[in-house]
Model the fold of this input.
Amino acid sequence: MARSHRLSYRLLLLLLLSFETAPRFTSADPNDEACLKNLRQSLEDPARNLRNWTDNVFSNPCSGFTSYLPGATCNNGRIYKLSLTSLSLRGSISPFLSNCTNLQSLDLSSNQISGDIPPEIQFLVNLAVLNLSSNHLSGEISPQLALCAYLNVIDLHDNQLSGPIPQQLGLLARLSAFDVSNNKLSGQIPTYLSNRTGSFPRFNASSFVGNKGLYGYPLQEMGKSKGLSVMAIVGIGLGSGVASLMISFTGVCIWLRITEKKLAEEEEGKISQSMPDY
Done:
């Protein structure tokens, strides 16, 4: 009887241990798996920094808070952060990235990624940080990005993005960092992104510089017709100064000629009066 109890105890212990190690061997969330697999397929990795991003790992990338993928961070068995910065990555951003529905931070900065920013990012409803800066991204910024209501950071500087800045981005109440400098953007800066907070704008000029077609506060007011450059203003100032000097000099010369003529006439009159009559 005692031997039977000991055997039952050992079986129970083995069962508990198997449950403890089970998460490593269970399947991942199918959404995360599709997200990671398609992202890897859309990216080119000439430096082989993503050599461990394989199908075997995609099927189970997380164990609790532990990640088995370089650049990925897990939270309770789900991917919640992707940071693939400065890895010489090329290719494009997969629209299936939106399948990582628990993603809170996406940082693909300082690579050579090209193509559009997929509008499907709008489905990352938990996204708080979006950093795609220093790449070769083109196309327009999707207004649907404003549906990511928890966004605190949008950093898109040093790309080739064109078109206007969507007005809707100004409605992101949590937005505390915004940078679209050094792109090819055009149009007026949205009012809600440039609103003053006390004496200061919500985002200063450094967030918008390097876009020739952008105008409005907090950049120097340019209007729809291109404003005068600093050099042009200096040139106009110098030209005005030279013109004023020329006019003044001409006026003085004319006054001197008139005065000289008048004095000569007066002197001639005096001489004629002093001469005797014959």
DSSP finds five helices and 17 strands in the chain. Residues 15-26, 222-230, 232-238, 268-278 have pLDDT under 50 and may be disordered. The radius of gyration is 37 Å. The CA atoms of residues 224 and 250 lie 40 Å apart.
